[in-house]
Design a protein that fits this description.
Blueprint lengths: L1 E6 L10 H9 L8 E8 L9 E2 L2 E6 L8 H10 L7 E5 L7 H4 L6 E5 L12 H17 L2 E4 L2 H11 L4 E2 L13 H10 L7 E5 L8 H9 L4 E5 L6 H10 L5 E4 L5 H9 L3 E4 L8 H7 L5 E4 L2 H6 L5 E3 L2 H8 L7 H10 L2 H12 L1
Parallel strand pairs: 1-2, 1-5, 2-4, 5-6, 6-7, 7-8, 9-10, 9-12, 10-11, 12-13, 13-14
Antiparallel strand pairs: 3-4
Length: 356
């Protein structure tokens, strides 16, 4: 049996982001009997400190996995990872500057998923970008295997570091569920929309997700938009909320975590808008593809790779506005791509192939 330690996430049960959803779905029913996972979790986030979850062992660390403590949190997890584990699976590079020291005692296989080139994100300052770039370099130097979640990321690793990497994306079929018609009707009424007469976008409200571009385009049309995100997190979001809340066709909402509500909104939308310009395979995009709706995505290599070049793409407000006015956009091809490439059973199997 292979024993795998997972480092770098908030923890499970998943209640935060993409890596947490990844771990949630490669453990449990999608894991083979030949694999035993141990997941390091933040005790600051979880009131209940479980010893196990979905067959995985849980180890808790008394630090916050996000913010100023995140790097120290990752380092503490590596310090607790001994050679009793056959594989250390590190998700993200924020703590990878510590890998030269980790390698002094950990002699078994080290796998790092470098995520979406964090040092290129606009939200970071100069020092943070430098730190993340150095951490990425340490990951590429000391890991036995590098995982890229997108062809664009894989090409970057090849071109920048001249090293091979394994291409493994995220799954998205966990969004499938059954919601009664009566409840669906109540949810749509709550959000002030009718089936098929609105677009939806779900994301963190940050400049790199082009929220301003999306809102400006919709403000110039009569197309309805349900826009769900953390608008109060920063000044960027607060300013956009103040500016566009008065438009009758724009429905700005706070984060929504209820899975039934999200399913009802996404499955009944006319289209999905995806503004992310950074990162690799964005989990929200993969999830949206399973609904078979037309996807209008910001035109970057990562989004084209994720959608096999078969979505609709925009580079600015004008191009998005033109797409919104087009008729007969097709979304069924997105479902075909998703079912072929992004099921969690497939993703879990790809990870286990690396362990062996």
């Amino acid at each position: 049996m292979k024993k795998i330690a997972i480092i770098g996430i908030v923890g499970v049960p998943a209640n935060y982001g993409g890596f947490e959803t990844l771990v949630e779905n490669i453990i449990g029913e999608n894991a083979s009997e030949d694999v035993e996972y141990t997941v390091f979790c933040s005790s600051k986030i979880y009131e209940e400190h479980r010893e196990s979850y979905k067959g995985a062992k849980l180890k808790h660390i008394g630090l916050d996995a996000n913010g100023i403590q995140s790097t120290l949190y990752d380092i503490m997890a590596t310090l607790r990872t001994s050679n009793k584990y056959d594989i250390a699976l590190v998700l993200g590079v924020s703590g990878c500057l510590f890998l030269p020291f980790f390698r002094l005692w950990f002699r078994n296989k080290l796998i790092v998923n470098i995520d979406g080139l964090e040092h290129k994100r606009g939200k970071w300052g100069t020092f943070a970008k430098w730190f993340l770039k150095q951490s990425e370099a340490m990951a590429l130097r000391f890991a036995d295997v590098i995982i890229a979640d997108n062809k664009g990321i894989q090409d970057y690793v090849t071109d920048t570091y001249h090293k091979p990497s394994a291409l493994i994306a995220y799954g998205g079929d966990h969004v499938k569920r059954q919601v009664p018609d009566e409840k669906t009707a109540e949810i749509l009424k709550q959000y002030g929309v009718e089936k098929g007469n609105y677009a939806i976008s779900v994301c963190r409200i940050e400049p790199e997700n082009n929220c301003h571009v999306i809102l400006e385009a919709f403000a110039k049309t009569d197309r309805k938009l349900v826009y769900i995100g953390n608008w109060e997190k920063n000044e960027y979001g607060k300013n956009l909320k103040r500016r566009y809340s008065g438009f009758k066709n724009i429905n700005i909402h706070t984060p929504e975590y209820d899975l039934d509500t999200l399913y009802a909104l996404r499955s009944n939308a006319a289209m999905y808008i995806h503004g992310h310009s950074a990162g690799g395979t964005n989990p929200s995009l993969v999830e949206a593809m399973f609904f078979g709706k037309p996807i209008l995505a910001f035109d970057v290599v990562y989004n084209r790779a994720t959608t096999d070049g078969k979505a609709y793409y925009f580079k600015d407000c004008k191009q998005l506005e033109e797409l919104l006015k087009r008729q007969g956009l097709d979304g069924e091809v997105m479902k075909e791509v998703a079912q072929r490439k992004y099921t969690w059973k497939r993703i879990a199997s790809q990870y286990e192939d690396l362990y062996n």
